[in-house]
Amino acid sequence: MQPVLNVEDVRDVEQQLSEAGVSLSELMHRAGAAAAQEVMNLGDVESVVVLAGFGNNGGDGWVAAEVLRGNDVSVTVVTPIEPQDIKSDLARTVATSARRAGVPVVVSPPRDDLEKLIAGADVVLDAMLGTGFRGEPRAPFDIWIDCLNASGVRVVAADVPSGLSAQTGLAAGACVIADVTVTMLSLKPGLLADEGRDACGSIVVAPLAEQTEGIVLQEEPVAWRAETSDYLDVMLPSSSQVDKYTRGSVLVVGGSVRYPGAAIMAARSAARAGAGYVTLAVPEPLVPIVQPQLIEIPVVGLPANPETGTFAPDARDAIVELANKNTAVVAGPGMTVSASTVAVVTGLLQCSRPLVLDADAINCISRLTEGRLDSFPELIRRDAPLVLTPHRRELGRLVGMAENPPASLVDAMDAARRVVWADGGSELCVVAKGNATACVGVEMSLLPKPGPAALATAGSGDVLSGIVGANLARVAGQLDNESLPLLCAYACEIHAYAGSIAADRYGSRGVMATDIIDAVGLATDALEERAAYPDGAPDKQ
């Protein structure tokens, strides 16, 4: 796993490295060398333009320029002010050194001249605005960013693409779109989510010092980026000695006359994700609509409100009885929110089976707690695993942020922690869905690798709930609750990989939720093979 640190914690790491004998000057020289190396790693690099800012990020760029010149690369530094006028002592020192080493310097060029310089380069190193940047880029950097993005030239960003918040992943104004980002010391959350996903390109972490790993771990990372091999811990050994019961059974509870499809997709997804037996419980009027679409899955019709086509109050006991006969339960897709569905959800919370609450089940909890679940932790405190899968708006409704839901990955993790820390038990995981998803437990938050934009389609969340439910059923009683965030992250990566397969088949804008379902089995096999054989599967004899 790779640690992810908040930006303010990275500053603490720098200070502790300094106290351990690695000076800030040495860190700058190593950062610049790392940036220069990533430039050269692109290949066919004969000429480079470095766009350097005023501060330490600019200092990294000056060091990189001197290193590149020492490797016979033609390099020019573009700076808004003369090197001797740079206020930062460190940055001024390395800028002066680079100039003495013969690095050409262009000071505050007109736009036309800058565009020509950039167009003539093989690579541009972005060292304008670092991790301490806030707000919108000002002149000349806003103009430089526009020129760079319009050029089509390959870009390496030092630490963070200029204009992007390394903390939130949001950009208030212009933002560099890089091909590679070489970030120093550790990953930062803003590089992995929201606008950071488009801006960063591939991400390389430069630790800069041997002591870095130990110091980073002492900082208690805000999250961990899961590696594929980490999922071996939640993958049970494959065996031919299985039947439909040993693979686990999943009950899916959901649907309404208005939204019959969501429950269908969650049930089919659970089956594709490997559950040996799936049962779908729906309001009685849905049975003739749903059953013909689910040949392999039994559909149970339960008492319904004749006016709304939703579960009636007396459906609760029957649903709880069904739940206790299965290995795991998924509830919420298409269920709608009413007094009777709130009763269904509270009944399921009291059952003894692993439980996934999605969509309207989450909204039922919001209604029951008046949008302050973190003030009523006893409602969700239980012995069996509980997974909540809210998107950001649903998460906002859970914690009193309905009018101002989390706008970034770090905001979503903070909101999810309010829930899990109030509960305080390892049986709970909040899967905070978004363009980057966080699986937040009481001890650890994991960031699975996100899928393509093709996943942003109606029903995609229902598919994920089915995958999570199937995996909970598969490992029921065989893994401890502390592994719950890892299991959820694994399910998220299956979902992401299935989205990639579907996008290859139908195009990035043509994917529907049912296409993702059809790829879940292939995605699971591929992910398990990559985890077991990261260097490629051995040849079969």
Keywords:
541 residues, 7-stranded parallel sheet, 18 helices
Task: Explain what this protein looks like in three dimensions.
With 541 residues, this protein is an alpha/beta fold. The chain has 18 helices and 18 strands. Helix 9 (261-272) packs parallel to helix 18, helix 16 (460-475) crosses helix 17 (484-506) and helix 16 (460-475) packs across helix 18 (513-532). The longest helix has 23 residues, at 484-506. It starts with a strand and ends in a 9-residue tail after the last helix.
Q: How many individual β-strands?
A: 18
Which sequence of strands runs across the widest sheet?
A: 1-9-18-17-16-15-14-13-10-11-12
Strand proportion? 5-15%
Biggest sheet details: 11 strands, mixed
Helix vs. strand class: alpha/beta
Number of helices: 18
Distance between the termini: 33 Å
Low-confidence stretches: none
Mean pLDDT over all positions: 95
Could you say which overall geometry the principal axes of the C-alpha atoms support?
elongated
| Helix amount | 25-40%
In angstroms, what is the radius of gyration?
Answer: 26 Å
